[in-house]
Design goal:
Largest sheet: 8 strands, mixed
Mean pLDDT: 88
Number of helices: 25
Strand content: 15-25%
Helix content: 25-40%
Radius of gyration: 30 Å
Shape: globular
Distance between the termini: 46 Å
Number of strands: 31
Strand order of the largest sheet: 1-8-2-7-6-3-5-4
Structural class: alpha/beta
Length: 878
């Protein structure tokens, strides 16, 4: 969106918000004639946005009745913030309305501030980089409007993050004495905020700047404090010195941002009985104890935790009691699951997700690029790997393309996060400086070679992705070329760590163009404005840590097709796995809400991973592992994940599977018949299939298929008289392809033409899906096919699900797919798919034998089990 379009849309929204009919607002003289159609289409798109409500578990369903009696005509802070979002930030009206409705529901759970005594604890679950700060800013505004007087925001553990939050709240709530542009106006006398923290990097709380009288007046007090022991102790001492009667009647709201970090107890004894006398009692960890003790100082207190990775928070013991520092921080009163905002790109959108119901994978956006093991080794040896050089070119081209789209004044950032070690960050910065400088000099003084390289890269690596997302934005290289030089000149390379003291201050530099190299300071909470290219190879085996390091999650309006994320295939697969964990966690909350369960009844399950931990072992030390039963009735299971990043393991696995398949098919004898693309056998026993599944192998890190669970399910159904008779079919190509080749599987009747299946660009270890529509109809009788057609028509099912419904419970279907190692030889560069092997003629490359098992619907389906982590309240399979 160009600045002119943004201004025109802002004018129309403002007029409509003030009651002007839409047509009159669009045709207002303040909106240029040539922009009116754009404004009309944008407003029409906004009208079609469906607002998804927040999911909410509450301890007292009627607690929010007090809010319905509040006179909102006297409110100041929320109406001011609302106007700011609509006019200055140019938010769409539906987004502001959604924020208003959701924060009303949260506010209702906070209790009337005049209530004699209350102790409220809640949790708000968002997505990484999804607007949680906007949510708690709106909540603070409304809390101040209804009479909460002291608001303390605990903002991470880093000075940079605390400062970022302070600036955001000053701009949107507090205002400035000079009424500067881009911020709310300074409130009138009597409504101005008292503040004892400021925007300086070290502007944290200090008692010498604080006046107790502020706690006794009518104006609200706002403190933005990092979670640091020394700072929190200073805050404790200041509050302890305040008059007792002030603390007794003062309504306080504590917002804990990034609440899974530092706030969760990692040391204390778990005491469920208030009168427990534990000789081995150990106090809680420092920050956790200081937060709990801070709450105890007030009789009217609310604690609201905000996080996108709540694994540690929901594993806090539900019923712990500590007479020294107070009860733990479990959200006993409410849990809110915020909806995914319009235009947000999270783990599922970027990396894809397994669909457990179908066994297929939801494809992610084609912006993931692979960092090979050789590239990682190069980094360790202090040399610049080829993938990082390409990533820098991506940044230059993406920046030039954004400038062509009218976004030249907006910030643009490239993140390089390869190590937590400061020395290694400094060394890498030197290499990037040198490489970037050489490329810039080539463009300045002798651009022939680099121009051709950039032009080819734009045409092959960018344009296909752009066409797939926004065909109207596809342009020739020559149209962005004029912006390359200015972008080269504007880029600043910065190392952001504790040694350099460097910060990314987008307030001071709103058009900042930078390559930011760092580690911990760039790994959580801190927003990187205009993040376009991420180069990330830092490995973490904990769900929450890994998700929080994903600074690329968020809103990329108008340039998501230009973003790139470079990481190892292993990490890309892990992020895809975490998308499933996140999806199932929210699904459980949705089910619990429909059952009117309370937070103290919440027993959320967290799917375990073969290579990662849910959170640190100390944070989950009171958690336990359970086995949850599931059924394969009317489901298809297919092998779509293979260890392509571990070629030696892959070679051994594929050699084994070829041998196992040849032995199995040879044992079946002459096929019952040959279908159009391969042999088919019918009447095969369950025992023969089970023996094959005993010999076939899958990647132990792949969670999409568990052979032990599959075998257990088949055995249980067999014992009930089901899945006794199996159809086995090899699904090759109907016609030969010279490049894909044929495969000898030892089947009487000839070789089988191999099929092509390619890898997802967003998850290079995954084929996404190997079945085709109609494959699961193999072996069905005419009556069963007729039933399948009926299901398709009456229940609007596609061919494969309908076939599962129609297949008799006594029959199973095993499909085998001979996949050529040359698959993808004809792919165009830059698409959403990758060739099966980059070097199919390499000695380690192999043909792949994939399988799919189609299970019929069963009224007597037995359950098999999977492993999950749960807290002190067990999961409820409601």
């Amino acid at each position: 969106m160009t600045p002119e379009q943004s201004t025109a849309l802002r004018i129309a929204r403002l007029m409509i918000d003030n009651g002007v009919p839409r047509d009159l607002a669009i045709n207002n003289p303040a909106i240029p004639q040539d922009l009116r159609e754009f404004v009309r289409e944008a407003l029409e798109r906004e009208e079609t946005i469906i607002l998804e409500p927040a999911r909410m578990l509450v301890a007292e369903p009627r607690r929010d009745e007090w809010l319905r009696q509040v006179d909102r005509s006297q409110w100041y802070y929320w109406p001011t913030l609302r106007d700011y979002l609509l006019v200055t930030k140019n938010w769409p009206a539906p987004s502001v309305r959604s924020l208003d409705e959701i924060t009303n529901r949260i506010l209702g759970q906070l209790t009337r501030p005049e209530t004699e005594q209350f102790d409220i604890k809640g949790l708000v679950l968002g997505f990484v980089q999804s607007g949680k700060t906007a949510n708690f800013t709106a909540l603070i505004a409304k809390a101040a409007d209804v009479g909460y007087r002291l608001i303390i925001v605990l903002s991470g553990i880093d000075n940079g993050l605390r400062r970022q939050t302070q600036i955001r709240l000053n701009r949107e709530l507090v205002g400035y004495a000079d009424n500067r542009a881009g911020a709310v106006n300074l409130p009138p006398m009597g409504r101005q905020w008292h503040q004892f923290t400021n925007e300086e990097l070290h502007g944290d709380f200090r008692p010498g700047l604080a006046n107790y009288a502020a706690l006794q007046g009518s104006q609200p007090v706002l403190l933005v404090v990092k979670k640091n022991g020394a700072v929190l102790r200073r805050l404790h001492a200041w509050i302890d010195a305040a008059p007792e009667d002030v603390r007794r009647v003062l309504p306080v709201l504590i917002i804990d941002d990034e609440a899974d970090q530092a706030s969760v107890d990692t040391r204390g004894t778990y005491q469920a009985d208030e009168n427990a006398d534990d000789a081995d009692y150990e106090p809680p960890s420092v920050i956790n104890g200081l937060i709990r003790d801070l709450l105890r100082k007030f009789q009217r207190r609310v604690y609201v935790a905000y996080t996108a990775t709540p694994f540690a928070n929901i594993l806090i013991p539900h019923d712990t009691v500590d007479p020294t520092v107070g009860n733990d921080l479990y959200p006993k009163d409410f849990v809110v699951d915020l909806p995914k905002p319009e235009g947000y790109f999270g783990a599922e959108e970027l990396f894809g997700r397994l669909d457990r119901a179908t066994g297929e994978e939801v494809e992610g956006l084609d912006v993931i690029r692979s960092v090979t093991d050789q590239d990682v080794l190069a980094l360790e040896q202090n040399t610049l790997p080829p993938s990082l050089e390409i990533a820098i070119l991506d940044f230059i081209l993406g920046g030039a393309a954004r400038a062509h789209r009218g976004q030249v004044e907006l910030p643009a950032t490239m993140l390089v996060h390869t190590s937590s070690r400061i020395a290694e960050q400094q060394q890498l910065a030197g290499l990037i400086n040198q490489s970037f400088g050489e490329s810039r000099d080539e463009w300045r003084y002798d651009r022939r070679r680099i121009r051709e390289r950039l032009r080819e890269h734009w045409n092959t690596a960018f344009r296909s992705v752009i066409r797939a997302r926004h065909a109207e934005l596809d342009v020739e290289f020559e149209q962005i070329e004029e912006h390359i030089g200015p972008f080269f000149e504007s880029v600043d390379i910065r190392v952001v760590n504790s040694f350099t003291g460097e910060v990314l201050d987008y307030e001071r530099e709103p058009s900042l163009k930078t390559i930011a190299i760092g580690g911990n300071r760039l790994s959580r909470g801190l927003t990187l404005e205009g993040l376009m290219v991420s180069y990330f190879v830092r490995r973490s085996v904990m769900y929450d840590t890994l998700m929080q390091m994903g600074r690329w999650f968020g809103f990329r309006n108008g340039y998501e097709d230009l973003t790139r994320i470079y990481m190892t295939d292993e990490l890309a697969g892990w992020f895809s796995d975490l998308a499933l964990v996140e999806h199932e966690l929210r699904e459980d909350i949705q089910v619990y809400e429909s059952q009117n369960l309370t937070p103290l009844q919440l027993g959320t399950r967290i799917l375990q991973h073969p290579a990662m931990l849910v959170t640190s072992r100390l944070k989950q030390r009171f958690a336990s592992t359970i086995t949850v039963e599931q059924s394969y009735s009317a489901q298809v299971v297919q092998t779509v994940r293979f260890p392509f990043r571990r070629l030696y393991d892959l070679t051994d696995l594929l050699d084994n599977n070829l041998q196992a398949t040849q032995t199995f098919l040879h044992s079946l004898g002459v096929p019952t018949r040959w279908i159009r693309n391969g042999p088919l056998w019918q009447g095969i026993t369950a025992d023969a299939v089970l023996e094959f599944l005993e010999n076939y192998q899958v990647d132990p890190e792949a969670r999409s298929v568990s052979l032990p669970l599959l075998r257990a399910y088949i055995e249980r159904q067999r014992d009930l008289g089901e899945l006794l008779n199996w159809t086995v079919a090899v699904k090759g190509r109907e016609s030969a392809d010279r490049t894909l080749g044929d495969l000898d599987l030892g089947v009487p009747g000839g070789r089988i033409h191999q099929v092509s299946r390619t890898r997802l660009a967003s998850d290079p270890n995954s084929l996404g899906v190997i079945t085709s529509p109609g494959d699961e109809e193999e072996g069905l009788s005419k009556d069963s096919l007729d039933r399948a057609r009926t299901f398709q028509e009456s229940e609007k099912l596609s061919a494969n699900p309908a076939a599962r419904r129609a297949r008799p419970a006594s029959e199973g279907l095993l499909l085998l797919y001979p996949i050529s190692r040359h698959s993808g030889y004809d792919l165009q560069e830059g698409g959403s798919r990758r060739a099966l092997f980059e070097h199919p003629n390499d000695a380690r490359s192999r043909d792949v034998l994939g399988l799919a098992i189609s299970f019929p619907h069963s009224d007597n389906a037995q359950q098999v089990i999977g492993q999950y982590t749960v807290g002190t309240v067990g999961w409820r399979p409601v």
